[in-house]
Amino acid sequence: MLVSSAWAGPPFITDDPEPVNYQHWEINYAVSKTWRDGSMSAGLPSIDINYGIAPNMQLHIQPRYSYEGTTKDKHFGVDDTEVGVKYKFLNWEQGGSSFMAGIYPMFQVPTGDRKLGPSRGKEQMLLPLWVQGSSAEWTIYGGTGYRINPGAGNRNSIFTGATALYQVTKSLQLGGEVFHETPDAIDGTSTSSFNLGGSYNLVSDFNLLFSAGRGLKNTVSANRLSVYWALQSLY
Questions:
Q1: How many CA atoms lie within 13 A of 36 on its CB side?
Q2: CATH class, range 25-234
Q3: What is the pLDDT of residues 179-211, one digit of tens each?
C-alpha cells in the first residue's frame, strides 16, 4: 500500500469503524509493493487476521514477512507485528441510510528484523477515531489518528484520511482514498497520497481486494507507485 501496509483497512490505508461480526473471522492474505527512487519494499505476504470477540468489537493481529531492496542491498525478514482492538460505540440507522463511529487503537509489536531498516524493531501506537456514513450505493468513511512514535530523533504524528466507495454491481465495489500524515521524525517531512481500488466478490465468503496509487507530496522519496492485492476469506 502507499506508505506502509501497517495501520491499514484493506485494501486502503484509511480504516472504517465497522468490526467483524460477533464470533466470525475475516482473514486477508495480502501481497503489497511500493516503489521509491532507488529502492522498493514489499510485504510477501502479510496476513491480516480479525475476529469478532464480542458484539461491536473485534481483535486484530497482522504478522508480515517483508522485503527491502536498493541498487546495492536486498534484505528479507520478519517484520513488526500489528495488534489492535476495534470497538464500534455508535450505530445509527434510518431508512436506507446509516452512520457509525468507532475507535481502533493499534500497537506495533517490535518483532521486525533490523536488517529491514532503522524503523523496524521499534514500538509504535496509533490511536484513531473512525466514522462512516452509508446511503444507497455509496459508503464514505475516514477519520484521524494520533501516532505515538517514541525514540531518539522521532516525533509523534497525526494521520488524516477519507475514503469513498460506490457499489457498481452486486459483486463489484470501487472507490478511492486520500490521506495525509504529519512528519514522524524531527527532520522528517509530511506525506500526502491517494489510492484507487476496491473489492470483487469471487464466490460466497471470498473476495478479491485490490488498490494502487502514489504520493501527492515528496513522491520520489516516499512513494512513486504502490500496489496491493489480497484474498479475503470470511467465515
A1: 17
A2: mainly beta
A3: 999 999 999 889 999 999 999 999 999 999 999
